[in-house]
Amino acid sequence: MEPDHVPGWFWEVLEAARPRLSVLESWLGSQSREVLEAFALAYGSAAESLADFAEGVSVDGDVWSEDGTEDLCGWVVGQGHGLWSSVVAGELRLEEAARMYLGRAPLRPEGVAPWDGEVSDPAHRGYQSPGAIVHGVYRTRFAEDLHERLDGM
Description:
Layout: H1 8-17, H2 21-29, H3 33-48, E1 58-59, E2 62-63, H4 66-78, H5 81-88, H6 94-101, H7 133-142, H8 146-151
Helix pairs in contact: 1-2, 2-7, 3-4, 3-7, 4-6
């Protein structure tokens, strides 16, 4: 996926909510089913544009698992458009982003506050990242699994 295929509103929502996950949770909670689905699709597409999860990413001689690579790519998206676009454009290697993820390198862009992980609704515990919270909100609001819904589309 090319960078221009992730809608601008998606990045605007992430940046407006950051660093408070509860703000993103609240915004998602006020949106329609279609907006929640579009948010989840944009998040997933942005993450998939960074790497083939099945191939893994090599960091300091270790090749990460598919799940680990998917988690890393989701984390990069959650850091916002600046970091994500740097990786997509090849200005920053995914391996270096992995070092940031692991705390072995300073986070870029500097001054970007990490997500606080706090949620307002106890039902959303366990969904405490910007990529996962939409799934908790969707389940709470519509009593459906968002993964299953998106797989059926």
